[in-house]
Design goal:
The chain is mostly helical. The chain has a single domain (4-18, 28-336), classed as Cytochrome P450 (Cytochrome p450), CATH 1.10.630.10. The protein is 49% helix and 11% strand. It contains eleven helices and nine strands. It has helices at residues 4-12, 31-47, 49-61, 71-85, 92-103, 113-139, 148-155, 162-194, 205-215, 247-251, 290-305; strands at 66-69, 222-225, 230-232, 235-237, 242-245, 308-313, 319-321, 325-327, 330-336. Strands 1-9-6 form a three-stranded antiparallel β-sheet, with helices on one face. β3 and β4 (235-237) form a beta hairpin. α9 crosses α11. The mean pLDDT is 93.
């Protein structure tokens, strides 16, 4: 659905937002467990933003002058977060598998069968390695939380199987790196396409990121499952039917967004310019990590553009669909100023 009023009702009404969220699938037994793990991961990330900023500086120092995006965006985000996701004392082989997963088709489903098969093999190896790590950590005496995996272990039910904990961690790993990297890539692509002069971009990083999430939200659909016969928007629905909100369509509703088809970061400094905005969902199931995700994206874009000019070539603003709306490959040249 694209109607903002109906979308708001669907995402906020208790009728459609009771029980567990579909975010973790069937991995966790209760909504309370889902919330506890989500909050623990978010709090860990938020506390480690200074470390992310420092690690990002090192990653940028190694960045070639010309890079292929969005792969480069995912690499930057991962390198900034690597020690936060799995601390440096984790076995090197497990960390190497996690790094391979960033570009090995584990983040997004490939359109090619052979690539999906290879990604499944890599995913299986990563799950097995993290499962072993979970078992080892459960044998250790309780201590401070060193990384996101520790946060998950501290918040999950004690009787959750080691493999299930590993799968929960992988869900979080993907949901952190993939959308942050994808939105960063959209931000660079759209800003580069709409400001081609030699002068620096005229917008603050946060305006660019917020407008990129409006103009090209990575999350294409936000669904709710009907659990009993009901009528919605004048239409009947049966149990098991899925009602889906399209953030893209909601963000491009011309009744609520002025110049909705234009990429205009300056709208975020203007009053009366903004309509319904749901890049992280809305209501009880709003993404618990929304604020820290925005921080990571803004920090990364700010670091990228500091004392440097970005130019985009080979760009196509049409999204590719891969478990979300992601940018098609393009090249970014970063020139020091």
């Amino acid at each position: 659905m694209s109607d903002p009023e109906l979308a708001n009702e669907l995402l906020r009404s208790p009728e459609f937002n009771s029980g567990t969220s579909g975010f973790f699938g069937e991995l966790l037994p209760t909504r309370a467990a889902q919330v506890a793990i989500g909050q623990a991961a978010r709090n860990t990330l938020r506390a480690r933003v200074p470390e992310y900023r420092e690690a990002l500086a090192g990653a940028l120092a190694d960045l070639p002058s010309a890079g292929r995006w969005p792969a480069t965006a995912s690499e930057l985000v991962y390198r900034g977060l690597a020690d936060v996701l799995l601390h440096p004392g984790t076995p090197a082989g497990t960390r190497q598998l996690m790094e391979q997963a960033v570009h090995g088709g584990v983040m997004f489903r490939s359109p090619h069968v052979w690539q999906r098969a290879r990604a499944e093999l890599l995913r299986g190896k990563l799950i097995a390695a993290v499962t072993r790590e979970v078992g080892c950590r459960r044998e250790e005496p309780p201590g401070r939380s060193r990384d996101v995996l520790d946060a998950v272990l501290g918040a999950c039910p004690d009787d959750l199987a080691d493999r299930t904990v590993a799968e929960v961690f992988l869900v979080l790993f993907r949901s952190i790196v993939a959308p942050v990297g994808s939105t960063l890539a959209w931000s660079v692509l759209l800003a580069g396409l709409h400001h081609t002069s030699a002068s620096p971009w005229p917008w603050p990083s946060e305006w660019i990121v917020r407008e990129a999430m409006r103009h090209r939200p990575m999350v294409w659909m936000v669904g709710r499952t009907v659990d009993r016969p009901t009528e919605f928007g004048g239409l009947p629905f049966r149990p098991g039917d899925i009602l889906s909100v399209s953030p893209f369509l909601v963000h491009h509703d011309q009744r609520h967004w002025a110049d909705s088809e234009l990429f205009r970061p300056e709208r975020w400094a203007e009053s009366g310019e903004r309509g319904p905005y749901v890049p992280f969902g809305a209501g009880p199931y709003t993404c618990v990590g929304a604020s820290v995700a925005l921080t990571l994206m803004t920090e990364t874009l700010t670091a990228l553009t500091k004392d440097a000019r970005l130019s985009v070539t080979g760009a196509d603003a049409r999204p590719a669909m891969a478990e979300g709306a992601v940018p098609r490959p393009f090249t970014v040249v970063r020139t020091p100023t």
